[in-house]
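Record type: monomer structure entry
Structure origin: computed from sequence
Chain ID: A
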Amino acid sequence: MARQKNILSDELKAQLNRCKTQEDLFGKDGLAKALIGNMVTYMMEKELESKLGYPKNGRSENSVENRRNGYNEKTVRSSSGDIQLRTPRDRVGEFEPELVKKYQKDISFFDDKIISMYAKGMTVSDIQSHVEDAYGVELSTGTVSHITNKVMERAKEWQSRPLDAIYAVVFFDAIHYKVRDRGKIVSKAAYTCLGVNLEGKRDILGIWVGENEGASYWLNIINELKNRGVEDILIACMDGLKGLPDAVNTVFPETEIQLCIVHMIRNSVKFVGYKNQKEFCADLKLVYNAPSEDAGQVELDKLINKWNDKYPLAIKPWVNHWDHISTFFKFPQEVRRLIYTTNHVEALHRQFRKVTKSKAVFPTDDALLKMLFLAATNVSKKWRMAVKDWLKVISQLDIFFEGRVIIH
């Protein structure tokens, strides 16, 4: 698409060039008000052009029945404060712009458009280019950043909001990114807690950006969950990070721990020769598909006898972590399907990767958190129940966790 002509008047361009600080642009009397008003007026003029069928000054207006007829002025609210807006009129009075309705008093929608583009993974330069192509308006890097930085206020409120007292299941996982920190590019973990409440609805309890994944950092997060109102977690699902089960049980001693079976399988297969992987996986499947823990233990013993001498590293995790692997055997299939794997939180992380793939390195922790928060907000709007037959699941949990399933 060809770039449209810049719509800024020479006077506004000159004022823009004189802006040296954020205050000059976004302060109480900053230039942003005039820029926003100029942009919105231009967009409404384009609407009128579409209605009349010809551009401004593009043909003799006397040759058609309807034509332009000046402007109405009104004061509206924007993200930069109250501004004067000029709405173009037509001669017969039929034109009412879609962009800003006749009695509309708030036009902060434009910020939401910028934030929406940012949430979909568009870079600042992508947003600048798109806005210029679509509206003929040049936005500086500072303007886009100023708008998207407002997200941090919302993210901090969201991150500190009160949580439910009881969660049926909480999934713990982390995803890693490159972030610039004190002049160096380092790998950092974005820690995610995804809960399923007693109504069967998924809820992202928080996203934290910190050093590489470790049990001590998880302990801080779990303590924060408690400080925000969580009194009990029935089942905690996680991968095999050493120390994380102890961190959970330190804060919530009655919580059942379930290690992700899919993670366990992947970690084992890495240590099995390619020619034996199919046979090994078939034997391993008999362990985690067993109808009961006792039956699973029998199949595990068979697995040990058959493969331990050849692939001890593939067997060792199942032996060492059996207490936290076998938790799901206690429950019926409906509950097993929910806690068998951390797929719920991994699906969320796949959405994170979609919007962050254009960023090889994030400039700050806040820049990463800002984008993940927006992605999480967008994804969660489309969520349905965590499982189809939640009433059956919660009824089962009520029996297994007698006296702990308290629905207000």
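Annotation 1: Residues 32-52 form the longest helix (21 residues).
Annotation 2: Strands lie at 68-78, 81-90, 166-181, 184-197, 202-210, 232-238, 256-259.
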